[in-house]
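Per reviewer request, we include the raw input and output of the structure prediction for the construct analysed in the revised manuscript.
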Amino acid sequence: MIDSQHIIVTAARLRARIGARFPGSGLYGVAEKVRIEAVSAEEQIRRLTRPNWFFRGINVLLLAGIIAILFYIFTHFQMRLHAQDVEGFIQFLEPALGSIVFIGAFIWTLVNLEDRWRNAKVVAVLHQLRSLAHVIDMHQLAKDPERLVHRGPDTAFSYKNEMNAFQLGRYLDYCSDLLSVLSKVGVLWAQHFTNPDIQRAVDQIENLTNGLSRKIWQKLTLLGRLLPDEKVGGDDQPGPA
């Protein structure tokens, strides 16, 4: 299983590395958001896996009501049997059993309601992770390696590129690292919640981050081909936390 502390440490180191290389950049702000998601995931998972005593308390009260009804039916049955009033007992039994069925169905609904409430909370967090992956993709979108070599005339709407080959390579590496950490945060949620909707959402995040990382590595490969004599690799690769 993935250790949440390893994810938190890795996210913090990655944020520090981005801050040292690109201080004040938008990517540094995104790295901080990824770190916050990693930190908050541990606490939120701990909170959501604990029993919800509001729902559990209502279930206990309803279960006590069923036991009271059963006890009342039993004692009433003895009274009717002793008085040999079978017809009266049958008239009493039908609404009593109906009440038991109704309360039991209500308990089952509350149990499912607790699960639905918990799953909705988790899916909302996973939606935030998915949105954050798209934000990371937006940061690497304008980083075009070809502009370092084939510099045509800029337009009024052209992106300003002030990075050299090494800096561009590091920037793209950081984007890929952030996507990887984000994917691992999603897996952390999947380890504790086995609901099919949650598992499907985590798989979607993993597929999304893998697809975006492939786009980034295509740019890194192109950068290495266009500038084979330049250093485009990193000097501070993340490694294990």
